[in-house]
Write a structure and sequence with these properties.
This protein is mainly beta. The protein has 2 domains: about 20-190, Immunoglobulin-like, CATH 2.60.40; about 195-290, Immunoglobulin-like (Sandwich), CATH 2.60.40. It has helices spanning about 20-30, 180-190; strands at about 45-50, 50-55, 70-75, 80-90, 95, 105-110, 115-120, 120-130, 130-140, 145-155, 160-170, 195, 200-210, 215-220, 225-230, 245-250, 250-255, 270-280, 280-290. Strands 4, 5, 7, 8, 10 and 11 form a 6-stranded antiparallel sheet that branches. The longest helix has 12 residues, at about 20-30. About 40% of the residues are buried.
């Protein structure tokens, strides 16, 4: 399952069906706490070949509506990498399942800006060393704790590519212990999540050349810094890496082949997600084709 945008809702948690949700929450906490202590600000590590994952939480009181932002931390062994929501030619997008959780009304995953890798099998998009995906959880009832069970299937690669999986459990309530280290780590990766476009860093124009290619104009804040452009469309569409074809006065033009667009697909009206990276900054925009 491919994640298309950082504001996209992930799987909806199951609706609490009991008529006495308060009693249900109490019973669930007792059972759940056997594997995830309520005082813990992070879950246990879940190990896989080349990687391990856990959930970290800054702790402290939640927002007025009970919302809390936590982080899914994937730590990679040296030389290994994992993948972004749109993984490129040879990657595998992660799949998230929180259906075993309780008291979740909404769950939103944000994605730090990725990197592009030149693999023997083509280009892939993702992360090396480690990454933390910020996750904002809104409870169904702000008065009750969130009982999070998050299962993740993801791919990792070194000389070989292997599937990885893990499950993290955590009780998120008002009494969750504050964790300064987790808070600092989460904040560092939140800064890497693409912001909205601004006057000095943005996609400024997108034009289709028949069905052969897109011409995309961008404004860069620092033309001397590395830059990249990631383009996402409907799930059945595939885009390779766009190529820089012109640069003048801070404006960079990119050409994107449309070979991976289905022949029967209509370009007009299709919404693209454009992630523009320039040095340590990144922005994300939606663009509807004419």
């Amino acid at each position: 399952m491919m994640m298309r945008e950082r504001t996209t809702e992930m799987d909806r948690a199951k609706t609490l069906s009991m008529k006495t949700p308060a009693l249900f929450a109490v019973l669930a906490v007792v059972s759940f706490s056997m594997s995830a202590p309520a005082s813990a600000a992070s879950s246990s590590w879940s190990d896989a070949m080349g990687a391990r994952m856990r959930v970290i939480a800054p702790g402290g009181p939640p927002a007025a509506d009970g919302s809390q932002t936590i982080g899914l931390e994937i730590e990679l062994e040296p030389g290994w990498k994992t993948y972004w929501r749109s993984p490129g030619d040879s990657g595998v997008p992660p799949y998230f399942d929180h259906s075993a959780s309780a008291n979740i009304a909404d769950l939103q995953i944000d994605w730090p800006a990725p990197h592009r890798f030149d693999d023997s099998g083509g280009m892939s998009v993702g992360y090396k060393s480690s990454v933390v995906l910020p996750i904002t959880i809104k409870p169904q009832s702000a008065a009750l704790p969130v009982l999070l069970t998050l299962s993740v299937d993801y791919g990792v690669c070194k000389e070989i590519c292997v599937p990885a999986s893990g499950t993290a459990k955590l009780v998120l309530g008002r009494n969750l212990a504050a964790d300064a280290e987790a808070s600092a780590t989460l904040a560092r990766y939140q800064e890497k999540v693409p912001a909205d476009a601004g006057p000095d860093l943005a996609v400024t124009a997108v034009a289709a050349k028949e069905r052969q290619s897109l011409t995309i104009e961008t404004r860069l804040a620092d033309v001397s810094a590395d830059s990249d452009l990631f383009v996402e469309g409907p799930e059945s569409w595939y885009f390779p890496a766009p190529k820089k074809t012109a640069e003048k006065d801070g404006t960079v033009t990119w050409t994107l082949p449309l070979d991976g667009v289905p022949q029967d697909a209509s370009l007009s009206g299709t919404e693209l997600t454009l992630t523009l990276v320039n040095g340590q900054r990144a922005v994300e925009q939606k663009w509807r084709l004419d």
